[in-house]
């Protein structure tokens, strides 16, 4: 039986790309169903670009400041992705809001990780939001990207306890450990067919390991 080709993945970053690093490391495993073929950043000074290059991945910047508007920047980004034969896009700290046209063009083929248990605490400063709300559980979510910010169908989530004495920094430190576990597991699910988009929901195929990977909770 022929081996299924690995899904060609691009990662978009704006900074150091710590989640990018976790995806790259996971993709080194022979049986991992995705191959990281491209890293792009909207910032030429993004530290993650150098890391990607150091492990042999094509990586470069498309400076959003060089474009007159959002649509033309998105068009340049789209052209790079298509030229590299990218099949799936992972956002990893990419701090740009896309035009609706770009999101529609990559609908069902673009996922993001957000530092909260969506639908709670969309947007920025999620750890401060969680502390202000007094929740007992916080965490992170991998979801498909849709035009509405932080609102797409959920692929996987991981939870952490909120402890007495937590501040945003201590809570963020606990959450990011789970982000680095969750994102590679969620990408494997999507790239390997263990998770599929069905309307506005994600269906997890009941094959044991894949289902467990999507339900990380600590």
TrEMBL record:
Pfam families linked: Formyl_trans_N
Residues annotated to bind N(1)-(5-phospho-beta-D-ribosyl)glycinamide: 17-19
The family database entries (InterPro entries) matched by this protein are listed as:
Formyl_transf_N (IPR002376), Formyl_transf_N_sf (IPR036477), GART (IPR004607)
Record family assignment: Belongs to the GART family.
Do you know which HAMAP family this protein is assigned to? PurN
Entry function? Catalyzes the transfer of a formyl group from 10-formyltetrahydrofolate to 5-phospho-ribosyl-glycinamide (GAR), producing 5-phospho-ribosyl-N-formylglycinamide (FGAR) and tetrahydrofolate.
State the name under which the record lists this protein: Phosphoribosylglycinamide formyltransferase
């Amino acid at each position: 039986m022929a081996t299924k080709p690995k899904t060609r993945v691009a990662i978009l970053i704006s900074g150091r790309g710590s989640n990018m690093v976790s995806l790259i490391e996971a993709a080194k495993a022979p049986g991992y169903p995705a191959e990281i073929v491209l890293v792009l950043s909207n910032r030429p000074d993004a530290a993650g670009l150098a890391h990607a290059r150091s492990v042999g991945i094509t990586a470069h910047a498309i400076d959003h400041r060089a474009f007159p508007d959002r649509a033309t920047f998105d068009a340049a980004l789209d052209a790079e992705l298509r030229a590299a034969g990218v099949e799936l896009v992972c956002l990893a700290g990419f701090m740009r809001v896309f035009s609706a046209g770009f999101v529609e063009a990559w609908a069902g083929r673009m996922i993001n990780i957000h530092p909260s248990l969506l639908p709670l605490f969309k947007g920025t400063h999620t750890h401060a939001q969680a502390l202000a709300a007094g929740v007992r559980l916080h965490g992170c979510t991998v979801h498909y990207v849709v035009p509405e910010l932080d609102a797409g169908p959920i692929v996987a989530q991981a939870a952490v306890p909120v402890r007495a004495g937590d501040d945003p920094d201590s809570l963020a430190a606990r959450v990011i450990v789970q982000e680095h576990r969750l994102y590679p597991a969620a990408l494997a699910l999507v790239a390997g067919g263990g998770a599929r988009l069905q309307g506005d929901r994600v269906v997890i195929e009941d094959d044991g390991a894949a289902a467990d990977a999507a339900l990380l909770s600590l």
